[in-house]
């Protein structure tokens, strides 16, 4: 005996009182491992289609899920793959849906060398890749968060000022003489380095509108370009010589949040694969209990 299982979504349409088009219907937080930039990224994926037939009961969610499973077999996901998935979403929902969307929430792990020593370690970069297909128009956006260190220029100036005052006072009180050894000895005391600039762990949240004809996902390229612009990315494994090099880099790279945002602007505003961006930088202050932030957009 052939058993026909019921399909509620295919039953007679809804009464007119409940007939409304819905922007998005689908699933969120689908756990899937996918490969991006030759790296296995455990991800949570959101998948949606619009429900444009106001009288239809619902969509076929299993069709979205089974199509997403095919992404796990790919050596590397690219924009072409994701566009095909969205096209298949719509093909499997003919007469129901005209718009489809995928969001991939994940982290990319990159091994980074220490500044001087031979040590290395791994850094994680949270990202969201969002793709949408509507009326044969494909759109893609990429969000990535990048941690870095920032040292306050005002704090550095105040620290230099108090060191100058201490040096002048030591000379006047004849605690030191103007010879090299006395000065070197004095500089090695806590009296000399009486103040240090305050630094803070900072974050750049970069949101890009990608060229629709782009094939590969430029995640590592964008991360490297942003870190090069900011100049003081956070470190992983370090020895003392690396920590000292990091202190030097911070001392020579003073910046307010406004400076950091303008550096990122200059780095990305003419990029050939970007049609727009929305940036936010956050300096999690060590002086205050609040954060310093700067935000800006281009062609959004």
Automatic annotation (TrEMBL):
Pathway field: Cofactor biosynthesis; 7,8-dihydroneopterin triphosphate biosynthesis; 7,8-dihydroneopterin triphosphate from GTP: step 1/1
Reactions catalysed according to its record: GTP + H2O = 7,8-dihydroneopterin 3'-triphosphate + formate + H(+)
EC number: 3.5.4.16
InterPro entries documented for this protein: GTP_cyclohydrolase_FolE2 (IPR022838), GTP_cyclohydrolase_FolE2/MptA (IPR003801)
Enzyme class, broadest EC rank: hydrolase
Site entry: May be catalytically important: 152
Keywords carried by this UniProt record: Hydrolase
Domain of life: Bacteria
NCBIfam families assigned to the protein according to its UniProt record, in alphabetical order: PRK13674.1-1
Role: Converts GTP to 7,8-dihydroneopterin triphosphate.
PANTHER family assigned to the protein according to its UniProt record, in alphabetical order: GTP CYCLOHYDROLASE MPTA (PTHR36445)
Family to which this protein belongs: Belongs to the GTP cyclohydrolase IV family.
Protein's UniProt name: GTP cyclohydrolase FolE2
Organism: Acinetobacter oleivorans
Taxonomy of the source species: Bacteria, Pseudomonadati, Pseudomonadota, Gammaproteobacteria, Moraxellales
């Amino acid at each position: 005996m052939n058993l026909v299982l019921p399909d509620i979504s295919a039953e007679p349409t809804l009464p007119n009182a409940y007939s409304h088009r819905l922007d998005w219907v689908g699933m969120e937080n689908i756990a899937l491992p996918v490969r991006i930039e030759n790296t296995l990224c455990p991800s949570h994926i959101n998948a949606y289609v619009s429900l444009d037939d106001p009288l239809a009961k619902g969509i076929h969610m299993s069709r979205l899920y089974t199509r997403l499973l095919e992404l796990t077999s790919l050596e590397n996901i690219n924009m072409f793959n994701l566009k095909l998935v969205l096209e298949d979403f719509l093909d499997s929902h003919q007469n129901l849906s005209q718009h489809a969307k995928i969001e991939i929430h994940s982290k990319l792990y990159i091994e980074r060398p220490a500044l001087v020593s031979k040590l290395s370690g791994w850094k994680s970069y949270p990202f969201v890749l969002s793709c949408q297909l509507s009326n044969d128009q494909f759109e893609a956006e990429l969000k990535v968060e990048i941690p870095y260190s920032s040292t306050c220029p005002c704090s550095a100036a105040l620290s230099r000022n108090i060191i100058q005052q201490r040096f002048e006072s030591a000379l006047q009180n004849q605690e030191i003489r103007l010879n090299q050894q006395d000065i070197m000895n004095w500089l090695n005391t806590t009296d000399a380095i009486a103040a240090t600039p305050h630094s803070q762990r900072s974050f750049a949240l970069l949101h890009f509108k990608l060229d629709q004809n782009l094939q590969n996902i430029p995640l590592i390229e964008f991360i490297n370009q942003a870190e090069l612009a900011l100049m003081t990315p956070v470190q992983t494994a370090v020895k003392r010589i690396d920590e000292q090099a990091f202190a030097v880099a911070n001392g020579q790279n003073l910046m307010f949040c406004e400076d950091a945002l303008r550096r990122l602007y200059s780095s990305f505003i003419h990029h050939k694969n970007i049609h727009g961006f929305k940036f936010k930088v956050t300096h999690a202050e060590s002086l205050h209990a609040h954060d310093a932030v700067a935000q800006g957009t281009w062609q959004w």
